[in-house]
Design a protein that fits this description.
Layout: H1 8-17, E1 22-27, E2 29-30, E3 41-47, E4 53-61, E5 85-92, E6 97-103, E7 109-114, E8 120-123, E9 128-134, E10 139-147, E11 157-163, E12 172-174, H2 185-190
Antiparallel strand pairs: 1-3, 2-12, 3-4, 4-10, 5-6, 5-11, 6-7, 7-8, 9-10, 11-12
Length: about 190
């Protein structure tokens, strides 16, 4: 079980001065603490095309379930977390402000700026997000450009999740272990 004190220096260096070229993460654990039984979802955070952006590249297994009704690629989608997604959380532990970025294989996304836990300050911010599904290979790939202005000041914690259909133990997976493998929003943020 890997617990994350998080790479405080690496993330802040990437996001705030671009000195680190990229950071890679893998979502390898189910909520019950057991390893995923399919290829892990992988995320790469990189310096963006401009000084005030960074990119996230997602490569994940494609399950196709649950399908998103009326999905419009490149646009925000309400309650996206109820469908197959990969989501990232960036938190400032001093202020408890955080941003949740959600990405779906169909190209929909959702940005939520939150403070405190689950209280949305801003929703539906636009993003440059594209996604492609390779049904034959059973994978999807997404690329997004994120303005650093979407992040709280002094981000120092991070976690990532993959959500899809499956048995209850396999529906939600995480990059960094939650407390005792429990599934709750409070525990999500404790390990960010």
């Amino acid at each position: 079980m890997k617990l994350n004190p998080f790479l405080h220096l690496s993330l802040s260096v990437l996001l705030y001065n671009g000195a680190v070229a990229e950071i890679q993460y893998s979502i390898e654990t189910n909520w019950n603490g057991k390893p995923v039984v399919h290829p892990a979802a992988n995320l790469t955070l990189s310096v963006g095309p401009t000084n005030d952006t960074f990119t996230i590249h997602v490569q994940a297994a494609y399950f196709g379930s649950p399908e998103i009704p009326d999905c419009e690629a490149g646009y925000p989608y309400d309650a996206l977390y109820n469908f197959e997604v990969v989501e990232t959380f960036f938190l400032c532990s001093e202020s408890n402000e955080y941003v949740e970025l959600e990405f779906a294989p169909c190209g929909a996304h959702l940005v939520l700026l939150l403070y405190p836990t689950r209280n949305a300050l801003v929703e539906y911010l636009p993003l440059e997000f594209t996604a492609q599904i390779d049904r034959q290979a059973g994978v999807w790939i997404g690329d997004v450009i994120v303005p650093t202005s979407f992040l709280p000041a002094d981000v120092n914690r991070f976690n990532a999740f993959a959500i899809h259909s499956g048995t209850p133990e396999e529906q939600v997976q995480h990059c960094y272990t939650t407390l005792a493998g429990q599934h709750s929003e409070k525990n999500n943020l404790n390990v960010l």
